[in-house]
Amino acid sequence: MNRTLIVMLKEPRAGRVKTRLGRDIGMVGAAWWFRHQVRRLLRRIDDPRWNVVLAVAPDRAGMISRVWPMHLQRIPQGSGTLGDRMERALRCAPSGPVCVIGGDIPDITAARIAEAFKALGNNDAVFGPAPDGGYWLIGLRRSRAIPPTIFKGVRWSSEHALIDTKASLPDHKISHVATLQDVDTVADLN
Fold first, then answer.
1. Domains (ranges, CATH) in the chain?
2. Mean pLDDT on 65-83
3. Which residues are within 8 A (CB) of 102 and not within 5 positions of it... i.e. 6 or more apart?
4. Can you state the percent helix, strand and coil of the chain, rounding each to 5?
């Protein structure tokens, strides 16, 4: 069974990535943190049990960037909201289960990803919740078509993101895995 893990990434440029963290520690410091966080993450999750694909932005620069490992496949995120970009990534993945994560969650490990793929064995969708009401992972078994309603009406960057996304998957059997913290501010670094 082909499993695909998509990592949503932006080029780590000052002022273009982790701007809320940048307001606390400076834009250069935030970009530096993100670059090194993602490098550590990619080393931990590059696993033979799934294919890692980087969904990169900006599209052109991300496809040729030397920042990320060259052996990992890349796809452009394209334009639109986070939901538009994640939906595009989910739809273009090869057949089989697919999970999407961000690069700013320090506690993601291969074991956490394996847990999510295992949950898809008995469920249509899986979420890794975040304490702020969002989520660090969404996964779909894809034994049925991705509904056209996915990510419609989601209030991104709010405490409603997880609830809204689950509501956009009508009649799906949904599971949850561990709650993990993403890093948005300096307080999240602790």
1. 4-189 (3.90.550.10)
2. 95
3. 7, 8, 136, 182
4. 35, 20, 45
